Each structure stands twice: as structure tokens, then as C-alpha cells.
Amino acid sequence: MPIRVITVDAFTDKPFRGNPAAVCLLEEPIDPRLMQAIALEMNLSETAFVLPEVDGTRQLRWFTPEAEVQLCGHGTLAAAHVLYEEGLAPADGVVVFDTASGPLSCVRQADGDIDMDFPTIPVAPTVAPMELFAALGVPVAYVGASEANYLVEVEDETTLRKIRPDLRLLEQLPKWGTIVTCRATYEGEPDHDFVSRFFAPAKGVGEDPVTGSAHCSLAPYWSAKLGKTKLVGFQASKRGGIVRVEDRGERVTLGGRAVTVMHGVLQV
């Protein structure tokens, strides 16, 4: 059975930047075990699986090389980009995905950005295990947590960029993901308000290049600290990427661009 697969770099307008995702366009449902096997074969931080539209929505699922995830920003952006680029969604229409995190809607703006409506994931202050501090190896100003992730604020970008975490220690923590963030202080990067990095070795992703779902927590966190609802985040991985955010209370808008880098067909 052939499956069309399109590789997209998300949260960037330049090839080989941002976060790559494989988007598999399914004509009918397939076994989740096959989805997991395909994700392992693709060996990207996420592979997205999109089913045909039914009653105005399309089912969307995301898999890392090791596990299915409940929410994925760059995989959603990549999937919406593919539907628009391939003419499978009207150029000015709203794309609605049915996902494990509920309906997620996407709309392409006139400038090419795609805005996505996501749930807010607030964090609360927490007492973190000592292994977290040992794994990061830098001074920490704040630690909060959501259901899935730690959010760690460090004092500046120099500190954030020099982190070389012990991934084995991070993998053993109660939370499967670790967001590290700080206020933007470097010059020369695109205009942005805050900076982040994201590590998820427990899901088979050492450092994620650009993490949309992390910005569901970063948006309300920095909105409260900086006193504005619309912000721009820069994820300072080796590839780098820009995520526009708007804190809307229980929902957050994530915005960014995407570029197609490869088309192919899987024979399964």
C-alpha cells in the first residue's frame, strides 16, 4: 500500500531550519503499530498522519520515533501547510484537525503565516527533583511544571545557549519534557521577546529543534511576566525557529511559516 509522505520544515521560511516533520497523507485508517514503525523509519522528532476530511474535520495523530504524543505544534503546522500547498484545503479556508487534544483549527494568513488555535498549558511553581538541576548544570531562577513538562527559567541567553544537559538524567525525571527559557537578551537574532530550548529524551527526542506545544506554556508564562499578550519566541536549537504566540486565556494562538523540502512515497 503506497502512502504519500511530504517532509516539511516548520516554524521557518528557509529550508533546513526550523523543525522537520514528515506528513503522511492517508487514504484510509492504518494500524497505530504501523504508524509507530513509520515514525521510527522517518526518525524525525515527529511524524504526522492525516486522514481524509469527514464532516469538515480531518483526524491527525503524531508519533515520535518511540511513542505517540498528545499534542504537537510543528507537526500540526506541517500538516496544515501540506493541505494548503497540495490544494487539499481552500487557500483562504480554515483547516480543522480532530486530535487527542481536541479540535485544532488552522488558517493561512495573507503573508503566508499559518495561525493555529491550541489549548493553553499553564505551569505552576513546583519543587523539582535534584536530578533536574544536576542534569542542566546551570543556575536556575524558577522551576514550574505542567502535567507533562518542567519549565525552567535561567538568568540569560548566554546561560541558556551553553547548556549541555545530561540526557540520561532528564530521561529519568517524573516529567517527560524539560523546557528551558529566558528573556531575550542577544542582539542580531530576529526580533523576539523570549528564548527557549526543549529536551524530551523519554520520548526519543534529545533536543527538539522547535517545539510548538512548549509554547502553549511559554505564552502565558511570558505574557504574565512581560505584560503583553502578543509575543515572539525564538527556539535556540542548532536549527533555530520562530514561533509567534498570543495568550488568549484558555487558548493560545501559535503562528509560523513552513517550507516543503521533500516528496516521497512509502511502500508498506
Average residue-wise pLDDT:
96
Q: Any idea what the shape is?
A: globular
Q: With helices defined by DSSP (H or I, 4 residues minimum), what is the helix count? A: 6
Structural class: alpha+beta
Count of the domains:
2
Percent of residues in beta strands:
35-45%
Element-by-element helix/strand order: EEHEEEHEEEEHEEHHEEEHEEEE
- CATH architecture classification name of the largest domain: Roll
Low-confidence stretches: none
Please give the alpha-carbon distance between the first and last residues: 5 Å
Helix content: 10-25%
What is the H level of CATH, i.e. the homologous superfamily of the largest domain? Diaminopimelate Epimerase, Chain A, domain 1
CATH C-level class of the largest domain is Alpha Beta
Counting DSSP E segments of at least 2 residues, the number of strands comes to 18
Radius of gyration, Cα only, in angstroms?
Answer: 18 Å
Biggest sheet details = 18 strands, mixed
CATH fold-level assignment of the largest domain: Diaminopimelate Epimerase, Chain A, domain 1
